[in-house]
Amino acid sequence: MNDELQQYPTIDIMNHLGEIGGNRASAGEGSESPAIYKEFEIMMQTTFKRLARAQPPGGGRGESGSDAGGGNKKRGGLLGGHSSPEECVEDMDRLGYKHIVVSATKMWSYYYHHKLIIDTPIEPIGEAIKSTGGRIIGGGGYSAFDIGGSIAELERGVREMGFKYIWFHPLSFGLPPNDRRFYPLYQKCMELDIAVGMQVGHSAEVLPSDVGRPMLCDDVAIDFPHLRINLSHTGWPWVDEWCSMLWRHPNVYGDISAYFPKSLDERQIRFMDSGRGRDKVLFGTNGLGLERCKKEFLELDIKEETKRAVLYDNAVQFLKLEDSQEG
Q1: What is d(CA 237, CA 80) in angstroms, rounded to the nearest whole number?
Q2: By CB distance 3.0 to 4.6 Å, which of 93, 110, 215, 288 could disulfide with 241?
């Protein structure tokens, strides 16, 4: 199967620091575990219940390895990531991944803690870009409650470290993507000529859901017609709105991350495999496993041209890689 996987060059548009050895939940002082936060505690009892049961103590699916402390750390499998960027690149080569986008995720606790419960630093991502020769692509993060600091950090990531993207989580702030507090971000992305991604649909964590409706990005796509926008995480349960946004707006794309491909909504699969959506859908794993997600995607009953477009070609266009890494 690995030979088949290598035949399909792939770009993972949606991943976090844990995929390359860092602590995805670096929050506040950077030392807390995500388990201490109510949002993640509830998530593991509800939306992630089956995934939690699937993980044996100290590891999970995927190739096993050891972390720096000598403990067990699953490699490239379900929510396990890798111990280092170099280990990640080994699996990328084995599985046919050209690039993985790793974003400096920021997530606010809207109901319970009223602070950032994920605040990923950009420095380890910048180091990974350098050590992997650009195989890791950097994405920034954004806090609606620290506009100036977020903009300054993004500019440093792009100008000093070569970031090409930013991903943010509007639901965690309880704000729709067309809120005025996000407009400085969109303008800065235009100035820096980078693409922006945002979570749409509901969230696996207990967060306000209605602000995640994909159609709320209509204003953004119209106000910023040249801004490349990724509606991340499928938009479920508002799949029809997600498809409509991708179909109607030349600058709007959408990724299928955070869901196993075999569980994608049938409406989304039909749209993706049609002329309406084939060149607008992006592939991503969101930590659910590089190997499993790609295998399941290739097993979908879709056209060959769709597989190649979604796995690779669309992301090259979306991230403007034609004149850089892929040149």
Answers
A1: 26
A2: 215
Residues 234, 260 contacting (CB under 8 angstroms): no
What is the pLDDT at residue 264?
98
Within the chain, which residues score under 50 in pLDDT? 26-30, 57-73, 323-325, 327
Phi–psi pair at 194, nearest 5 degrees: -120, 160
pTM higher than 0.70: yes
Instruction: Classify residue 126 by its DSSP letter.
Output: H
How is residue 285 written in tokens? Answer: 């794993």
Residue 98 pLDDT:
98
What is the CB neighbour count within 10 angstroms for residue 234?
24
Two tokens, residue 107: 């997530």
For residues 150 and 108, is the Cβ–Cβ distance under 8 A? no
* Both structure tokens of 306: 């769709």
DSSP state string for 27-95:
-TTTT--GGGSHHHHHHHHTTTHHHHHHPPTT--SSEEEE-TTSSEEEESSTTT--SSHHHHHHHHHHH
CATH number for the region 2-51+81-318 comes to: 3.20.20.140
Which residue, among 145, 251, 123, 275, has the nearest Cα to 195 in the 3D structure?
Answer: 251
Q: Where are the domains of the chain?
A: 2-51+81-318
Q: What pLDDT is recorded for position 58?
A: 40
- Return the pLDDT at 55: 60
Are 138 and 126 in contact, with CB atoms under 8 Å apart? yes
Place of tokens 């548009």: 13
